[in-house]
Every structure is written in C-alpha cells, then in structure tokens.
Write a structure and sequence with these properties.
The structure holds two protein chains of two kinds. Chain A is built from no helices and ten strands. Chain A is mainly β. Chain B has no helices and eleven strands. The radius of gyration of chain B is 13 Å and the shape is globular. Classes of the chains: A mainly beta, B mainly beta. The A-B interface holds A 30-31, 33, 35, 40-45, 48, 88, 90, 92, 94-101, 103 and B 4, 6, 34, 41-44, 46, 49, 91, 93, 95, 100-101, 103-109, 111.
C-alpha cells in the first residue's frame, strides 16, 4: 500500500496558532499530496510536492518532504476557525490511498 | 480549478433498491476515476479504480457484482449499488484525474441511507 499515515490523529489549537501535522509513508514516491476534508464533503487538494522538492509554500501552508525519512509535514500558520477539518496525505504510484488523517480543530 | 460533479448528494431509499451515483469531470478529461467509501470519523476506503473504456479494478473485499462501476467516457463514471441493504449505508465519494502523478479532484460525495 502506498498510503500515508498522518500524525497526530487529532489536534486542537486556538485561532492564530500554528498547526503542524505529519505524514509517513513506506516506499519510494514520485510525489506526495495533502488534502483537506470538511465534514460531510469531498476532499480538496491543497498542495503537491514532488520527490525532488524539499519545501513548498502555498499561502499559509508550508509543506516539507524528507525522502530519506519517508516523511512529510504540513504547517498551517496563523490558523483560523475555517481551517477546522480533517487533513490527509497521499502518495502517488498508480492509485491513491489515504490514511486515517489528522482531525484539526481550531477554536475561535 | 478542476471541477468534479457528483450526483445525487443524498439518497434515502428502501432496502432492495438499486442506486446509481454519477461522477462527472466538468472541465478536464478524467482518464482515471476512483470510488471511495467513508464511514463516520474514518478515512476513505478505496473501493475501485476505473480507467475509461476498461473494466474497473476492485479492491480486495469489494464485491464487483454489488458495486457496478461504469466508466464509458472520459467525463463520466457511475457507481451502481445493486439491491442495497442497510449495511450499504455510507458516504460514497468519487474522484478523477487526467493522468498519473497529478492531483485527484473530488466530488462532494453522496450520502446513501438505506432504510
């Protein structure tokens, strides 16, 4: 399986704080992707980082990738209540499987 | 950005009914479509992968005669839950991508409730 495993399973922070979640995977990849899922909705693609990239930014999102450790992290800076959602990572290689995700709660 | 439309968003029907869920890519050609099932507070479980014009590849434990998938065009895939029973009640989500190593684009899901 090429699924990523997110950590922590749940994270609760105050608005304005930063949120960091991690993803580990098992085999070589071409890219890793982060998605967000609001309750009762489909997933929204946030960012894709390729295996030859170490860091990528998109607005308040910062993703790092360490292929030697087979891990990635997603940092959300200056969090907002609207960031409350579940976050998933997934790797490529033919199909897309998802781990349990990190449930982020941002309290206003 | 790329848009995937999934319909219906919610279905409530009696046990024994067959239910069809449609997944359409609106502004790109979906070479591959994925169907997932999600139980409350759990992750997405991949049910099957379908490539346009080919038979779907089902994950282990997913009954292909129960969950019929058709991907007849580059913009449409359908999932039919045949003779649905209460245990089939779940949140079904489709996604599509145009080629490998590209992000998936997800529909908004279908909440299926079988009475």
């Amino acid at each position: 399986s090429q699924q990523g495993e997110e950590d922590p399973q749940a994270l609760s922070i105050q608005e304005g704080e930063n949120a960091t979640m991690n993803c580990s995977y098992k085999t070589s990849i071409n890219n890793l992707q982060w998605y967000r899922q609001n309750s009762g909705r489909g997933l929204v693609h946030l960012i894709l980082i390729r295996s030859n990239e170490r860091e990528k930014h998109s607005g308040r999102l910062r993703v790092t990738l360490d292929t030697s450790k087979k891990s990635s992290s997603l940092l959300i800076t200056a969090s907002r209540a609207a960031d409350t959602a579940s976050y998933f990572c997934a790797t490529d290689v033919l199909d897309m499987r998802f781990g349990a995700g990190t449930r982020l709660t941002v309290k206003p | 950005g790329a848009v995937v439309s999934q319909h219906p968003s919610r279905v409530i029907c009696k046990s024994g009914t067959s239910v069809k869920i449609e997944c359409r890519s609106l502004d790109f050609q979906a070479t591959t479509m994925f169907w997932y099932r999600q139980f409350p507070k759990q992750s997405l479980m991949l049910m099957a992968t379908s490539n346009e014009g080919s038979k779907a590849t089902y994950e282990q434990g997913v009954e292909k005669d129960k969950f019929l998938i058709n991907h007849a065009s580059l913009t449409l895939s359908t999932l039919t839950v045949t003779s649905a029973h209460p245990e089939d009640s779940s949140f079904y989500i489709c996604s599509a991508r145009d080629r490998a190593n590209q992000p998936q684009h997800f529909g908004d899901g279908t909440r299926l409730s079988i009475l």
